[in-house]
Amino acid sequence: MNRVVENVTNRVIERSKSSREIYLNRVSEAKKSGTNRQRVGCSNLAHAIAPLRSSEKKFMTAMQAPNIAIVTAYNDMLSAHEPYSVYPSLLKRTLLDNGATAQVAGGVPAMCDGVTQSQTGMELSLFSRDNIAMGTAIALSHNVYDGAFYLGVCDKIVPGLLIGALTFGHLPGIFVPAGPMPSGISNSQKAKIRQEYALGKIGKDKLLEAESASYHSSGTCTFYGTANSNQMLLEMMGLQLPNSSFVNTNTPLRDALTQEAAKRVLSLVEKKISIADIIDEKSFINAIIGLMATGGSSNHTIHLIAMAKAAGIVLTWDDFDDLSKVIPLLCKMYPNGSADVNHFREAGGMSVVISQLLNSGLVHNDIETIVGKGLGNFIVEPKLRGSYLLFEDGAKTSRDEEVVSSVEKPFSSEGGLKLLKGNIGRSIIKTSALKEEQMFIEAPALVFESQEQLQKEFKEGKLEKDFIAVVRFQGPKANGMPELHGLMPPLGALQDKGYKVAILTDGRMSGASGKVPSAIHLVPEASNGGVIAKIKSGDKIRFDIKNSEVTLLVEEEELNRRELLNLDLSKNRYGVGRELFSTIRANISSAEEGGSIFDLVGKERG
């Protein structure tokens, strides 16, 4: 095992000792209760089985056949989740054929960041994760279940489902993906057209035509953003069937994998392997390592911290940073390259990534998974032979080295994320898509209090120069920390013209961002007394990415004299349902603490 990986793992275990003990004790107490529906009264059970068919009622009242909860994030507006419309019936039929039952225990919201990107609704996006966690808990609170299926794919949905699932850690559980859509126009072509639109070279009709050729059917978007990073994480943590995440939706193989998930959860119930038996400190370390090796979404520097807390595990940005220094970048998928997740799967997918990491001692093999002990069980490839699903030996070396490389010849010797420190605070930067000349930038600040202000000045031709855009009051407490992905086309266009540009913000970027140097998730945020609230246009800022520094080049004495800007954010408090989230906004933690209203082991922040 790599010494740094081992050291980081040990310090996470030590740091988490007291909170982890509390969590595991709670799980142990819940496990002692036995089959949940045996504990409810006759009236309670009658309500639970009232809509079932007679054959299902017999199973339920016999108290011996497992009853599995389905927590679904289905809607038919979100392309990645539309396929879930048929999953409950498929899972139920498969379980009935195997002498068990399932019920849709509840639905959770699933908003599409693609639809709300650069729109007001994006200010609810991060908040939705904890809402989903609470919805999951409400669904499972009926307490008549022996296990659970979690149906979710996209950005906040998987983290929210896992936080909720971990609070029911005594239940066996399995995540069931829907798969990506087939490839449309190339991601590089889509990005080019977006920049042409930002420059006024094409009209909205041509932009919509290109966007619709990219996002064209049911299934996950094919670029490697947060949604597909979620799927990678679930495999690295052993919660999803091996090398199954990127099998296309609405195919016979996808359906066979969904049926196999039903059989697998019954095996977990029989063996009494709960989700808390699978998830531990090493699971989360593996997830971070997978994130670095694949060039995954920067959003997970927030979400993984929040997910880990639900299991009593304490992660920090320093853990991410230390691991990134020793984990090679093995994948080139958009935004880090031109390939998409379908090309990734064709190159060998997760089987190759896991094989390369295991062979180099860069990832923990001794973890529990839904298919048995050891991450090595995930070096397989699911295939249909007639009507039978088989997991054959998977590729250990890439079938396309332009998409997936090797530890010996990585695309970069370090992972795709870095922690930046300096007199402004701590921030995260995604480096996997940056060029060598972008690793050091020193330029005057241009301060913006909103993304709309930057867009306006770009259209007016005021940004044709070197600068570092400071976009502040975008943190969790200010306005829910919306993604600022809409700033990438104008900044990318300026960068392509030869200007040195970068962005410093207490907001987020999309998991699909990375072309422009972006110091994001800055803490402390402007609304919480951060130095970013003192920056003035014209101040020099230095990005020294190789040395992990971002520095405001203003004398300390001058900085101390400046007062913090106290911006009126009242307009961010209402409209599009924002009134309903005031309690979350008031109690949410910083980005580095997971941007959550939950504290360790499920306690609310107080």
From TrEMBL:
Binding site for [4Fe-4S] cluster: 154, 221
Cofactor(s) in the UniProt record: [4Fe-4S] cluster
GO terms for biological process, alphabetical: D-gluconate metabolic process; Entner-Doudoroff pathway through 6-phosphogluconate
InterPro entries: 6-phosphgluc_deHydtase (IPR004786), Dihydro-acid_dehy_C (IPR042096), DiOHA_6PGluconate_deHydtase_CS (IPR020558), ILV_EDD_C (IPR056740), ILV_EDD_N (IPR000581), IlvD/EDD_N (IPR037237)
One GO cellular component term noted in the UniProt record for this chain: cytosol
Chain coiled-coil ranges: none
Enzyme class: lyase
Keywords: 4Fe-4S, Carbohydrate metabolism, Gluconate utilization, Iron, Iron-sulfur, Lyase, Metal-binding
Catalytic activity: 6-phospho-D-gluconate = 2-dehydro-3-deoxy-6-phospho-D-gluconate + H2O
Lineage: superkingdom: Bacteria
Pfam families (UniProt xref): ILV_EDD_C (PF24877), ILVD_EDD_N (PF00920)
EC number, UniProt record: 4.2.1.12
Record text on cofactor binding: Binds 1 [4Fe-4S] cluster.
Pathway(s) served: Carbohydrate metabolism; Entner-Doudoroff pathway
Domain Dihydroxy-acid/6-phosphogluconate dehydratase N-terminal intervals: 66-376
Residues of the Dihydroxy-acid/6-phosphogluconate dehydratase C-terminal domain: 402-594
GO molecular function, one term: phosphogluconate dehydratase activity
Tagged with keyword Iron: yes
Record-stated family: Belongs to the IlvD/Edd family.
Record-linked NCBIfam families: edd
Role played: Catalyzes the dehydration of 6-phospho-D-gluconate to 2-dehydro-3-deoxy-6-phospho-D-gluconate.
The protein's name in its UniProt record: Phosphogluconate dehydratase
Record gene name: edd
